[in-house]
Amino acid sequence: MTVEPIGPDSTTLTIRSPLTGELVGTVPIATPADVAAAVTASREAFGHWGRLTHHERRHALRAYTRHVLANMDRIADTIRAETGKDRGEAMAEVTAALTAMDYFARHAGRILRPKRGRSWPFPTTKGWTEYHPRGVAAVITPWNFPFYLMMLSTIQALAAGCTVVAKPSEVTPHSGALVAVLAAETGLGDGVVRVVHGGAETGDALVRSDADMVAFTGSSAVGKRIAAVAAETLKPVILELGGKDALIVLEDANVKRAAQAAVSWGMFNAGQTCVGVERVYVVDDVYDEFVEEAAKVISALNAGEGGKGDIGPFISPDQVDVVERHVTDALERGASVVSGGSRRTIGHGVYFEPTLVVGVDHDMELMREETFGPVVPVMRVEDEDEAVRVANDSPYGLHGSVWTRNRRRGARVAARLTTGTVAVNDHLINFFVPSITLAGTGESGLGGHLGEEGLKSFCVPKGITSARTLPTTMLMGGWLPRRVGPRYWKLLARSLFGWRR
């Protein structure tokens, strides 16, 4: 995607296709005053949306889901125009969004129903936890999956009862804005989902605004800055950040299938996927077989516009410089390229050949920093323990996968990885399963999306107690003037807990 211009005097973003160079459209850049006005309007809408029952919101969100389903072609066309993705990949992105929409529309009421607490050791008091929407959620998302990632945060916020002010990436503003456009067309209500456009300054204004929380998906560097700004007012944040995701192949794995997965999910979306394969560790016994199989798969791929399996252009052409630097650094430090390794320009698009690199180690940028391109580096390891150790040797901890024919072993190794998500005999699927949590550790994030925990992140948990008869604190002797002393409390504690072993 080409964006022109973004300067101090710019009032609009002009977007051109990374595939053809053709004009996609323009959008106005929001000023800080525009951002403040959007948050104010969203807060007014929250006065209505936040008071709806879960049943009423379910009805509205089911209608929203149906409207997105009916507009799949329109959405996919917009995604393709802004990103250059294959149409099938664009459709897959919309399908993933629908999966999350359907799940949270149907299950939010169950997940957020009041949770009863146990009364022990205070039987004269009953208690429960309620989940109330935080208010206005600021949602900021990147360009690699511009519709899905925007919808992922938005649908959870809406299902929780929040309203949303969204800032899509300045690289793919139209794809992100469709989330708001389709919400308005569905009739969710004026201001329930609003959009502001722009670059870093607009995002900063949104984080510093009166929004009640921030849900950000993007780079670790930007996520840290957002966390620092939000901390000034103790504003809650959900940060889903970068990854350097490892794929481990054990000696008892289906090697052919593991190799196909490593290439597929290392090249998916031209490698521009935070949960894609960025590092591969193969146990020595099957290393040569794995490299041979991976080379076969890559040999069938082409960088360029075309049919199924091809590698598309970089959505943001500047990213190819990072990929090229990482490969060059690896070669200078002793690695070798089995296949690919070069950038290509085809028409208007900037591509990088599907690349397989061997002889890598952790002194190389390719194994330490997020590459975000169609490159699969493979490192030989002695055994399972070394594979786990080097996989955990990273500041990132977003996703990983383990390949073995022994399911119990796979689960055991998965538990040893310091990542927020792990797949056994698959990869990346966690990103699209709405019922389980998607979260990162270390520099890969804070908080999480999806699952019950993700939905509750958009809520304020409120604990409530109610006396069944007389106030429990009075019955226990806690009221003034003081009528009991230390001996009483010691006897009470022993009677309550002393018999437990």
In short:
By secondary structure, the chain is an alpha/beta fold. Helix 3 (72-83) runs antiparallel to helix 6 and helix 9 (255-267) crosses helix 10.
Strand and helix map with partners:
Layout: E1 2-4, E2 12-16, E3 23-28, H1 32-49, H2 54-70, H3 72-83, H4 87-111, E4 115-116, E5 125-133, E6 136-140, H5 148-160, E7 163-167, H6 173-186, E8 193-195, H7 200-207, E9 213-217, H8 220-231, E10 237-240, E11 246-249, H9 255-267, E12 279-283, H10 284-299, H11 319-332, E13 336-339, E14 343-346, E15 349-352, E16 355-358, H12 365-368, E17 375-381, H13 384-391, E18 396-397, E19 400-403, H14 407-416, E20 423-424, E21 438-439, E22 441-442, E23 445-446, E24 448-449, H15 451-456, E25 459-467, H16 472-475, H17 486-497
Parallel strand pairs: 6-7, 6-9, 7-8, 9-10, 11-12, 11-19, 12-17, 16-17, 19-20
Antiparallel strand pairs: 1-2, 2-3, 4-5, 5-25, 10-23, 13-16, 14-15, 18-22, 21-24
Helix pairs in contact: 1-7, 2-4, 2-5, 2-6, 3-4, 3-6, 4-5, 9-10
